[in-house]
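Quick one:
INPUT:
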C-alpha cells in the first residue's frame, strides 16, 4: 500500500488503506464511507436475509463482490489472501489459519506480517500463506482452509484467481477500499458467524479512542493531515470525510482541509485532496500538522522546507509524526495513531 501517497499518489490511493513498497493497498481510502455501500449480504438456510442475529445458523449464503458462496458450516480454518484485512480478522478473533505476507521491510516482521499485529498473529499460530504477495495456489491447497477470503482491490488482490480458488474452496471477496475497517468487520462478522466478535472489536476500539480524547488539548485553529512527499511530488491533504480525519475528529480535533481549487486530482476523492508541493503552504494551514507515515526524520524534513517556514504549525513547532504504520487505519494501527496524537497534544 508502495508507501501511501508517494510520488505516484493517485495510483496508490486508487488501488486502495495500505503501505510497503510491494503493496499498493489503500485500506485507508474508505471511499464514500457508508455502510450502505457494503455489498455482502447473508441469507440463512431458510432463505431469510440478515440472519446476523443467529450466529449459529448454517448453512448460509453470502452474496459478495464476485458472486455468491454457500458456506455449509461455521468456518474454523480461514486462509486470507488480503493482507490488508488480516489485522481486522485478528481483532475480531476470526479462526485465521494463514495469511498472505508482504515483502520484508522496516514495517514488517521477518515473515512479512505488519508490525502492529505480527505478535498477535504469532500468538495465534497464523502461518504465512505465501510471501511477497505472490499468489501460490499450491501453498493455498497445502493450507487446507475451509474458507478463503480475497480482496478485489489493492495490490494484495488475487481477484483474477477467483475462479481457480473458488473451484477448490468456498471463497468470498471483499472490497476494503470503499469502507472503514469497522464496516468491513461488520460485513465479515455476518459472513463468518462472528457478529458479536465484530461488535466487540468495534466497541473496544471506540472506548480506546474515547479515553484518548479525554487527554487531548485540541488546537484552536484545527489540524492538517499531510502525506508529505518532498519537493517534486504531490502532497496528500486529509479531507474530513476520510478515515484518518474521522479518527482524529473522534479524538476531538477539527480538520483543516486544503482549498478545493488547489486539488489537482483528476477524479475527486472523499479521503484526500492532492496538491502540488508549491501549494502545500496554502493547504496545510492547521495550527498543528500530523504527518502520515511520519517519523521524527520526516518532521525535521518538513520543518526544514523553506517554503513551509511560515506555516502556523511550523512556527509553533507543532508538526508531529503519526508513525510508519499510519498509512492505513485498522484496529491496531488506529490505536497507534491515537497514541501518537495523545503524545503530541496532551
Amino acid at each position: 500500500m508502495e508507501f501511501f501517497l508517494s510520488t505516484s499518489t493517485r495510483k496508490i490511493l486508487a488501488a486502495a488503506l495500505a503501505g510497503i513498497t510491494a503493496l499498493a493497498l489503500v485500506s485507508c481510502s474508505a471511499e464514500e464511507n457508508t455502510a450502505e455501500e457494503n455489498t455482502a449480504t447473508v441469507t440463512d438456510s431458510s432463505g431469510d436475509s440478515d440472519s446476523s442475529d443467529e450466529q449459529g445458523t448454517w448453512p448460509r449464503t453470502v452474496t459478495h463482490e464476485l458472486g455468491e458462496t454457500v458456506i455449509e458450516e461455521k468456518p474454523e480454518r480461514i486462509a486470507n489472501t488480503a493482507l490488508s484485512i488480516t489485522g481486522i480478522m485478528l481483532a475480531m478473533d476470526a479462526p485465521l489459519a494463514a495469511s498472505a505476507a508482504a515483502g520484508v521491510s522496516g514495517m514488517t516482521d521477518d515473515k512479512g506480517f505488519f508490525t502492529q499485529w505480527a505478535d498477535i498473529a504469532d500468538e495465534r499460530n497464523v502461518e504465512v500463506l505465501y510471501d511477497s504477495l505472490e499468489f501460490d495456489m499450491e501453498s493455498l491447497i497445502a493450507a487446507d482452509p475451509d474458507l478463503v477470503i480475497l480482496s478485489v482491490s489493492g495490490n494484495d488482490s488475487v481477484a483474477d484467481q477467483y475462479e481457480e480458488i473458488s473451484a477448490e474452496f468456498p471463497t468470498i471477496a471483499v472490497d476494503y477500499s470503499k469502507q472503514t475497517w469497522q464496516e468491513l468487520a461488520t460485513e465479515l462478522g455476518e459472513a463468518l458467524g462472528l457478529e458479536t466478535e465484530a461488535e466487540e472489536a468495534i466497541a473496544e476500539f471506540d472506548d480506546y479512542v474515547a479515553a484518548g480524547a479525554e487527554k487531548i488539548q485540541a488546537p484552536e485553529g484545527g489540524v492538517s493531515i499531510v502525506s508529505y512527499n518532498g519537493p517534486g511530488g504531490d502532497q496528500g491533504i486529509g479531507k474530513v470525510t476520510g478515515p484518518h480525519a474521522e479518527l482524529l475528529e473522534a479524538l476531538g480535533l477539527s480538520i483543516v482541509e486544503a482549498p478545493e481549487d488547489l486539488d489537482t486530482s483528476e477524479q475527486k476523492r472523499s479521503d484526500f485532496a492532492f496538491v502540488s508541493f508549491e501549494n502545500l503552504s496554502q493547504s496545510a494551514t492547521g495550527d498543528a500538522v500530523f504527518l502520515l507515515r511520519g517519523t521524527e526524520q520526516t518532521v525535521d524534513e518538513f520543518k526544514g522546507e523553506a517554503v513551509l517556514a511560515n506555516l502556523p504549525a511550523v512556527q509553533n513547532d507543532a508538526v508531529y509524526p503519526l508513525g510508519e504504520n499510519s498509512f492505513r487505519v485498522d484496529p491496531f494501527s488506529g490505536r497507534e495513531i491515537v497514541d501518537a496524537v495523545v503524545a503530541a497534544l496532551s
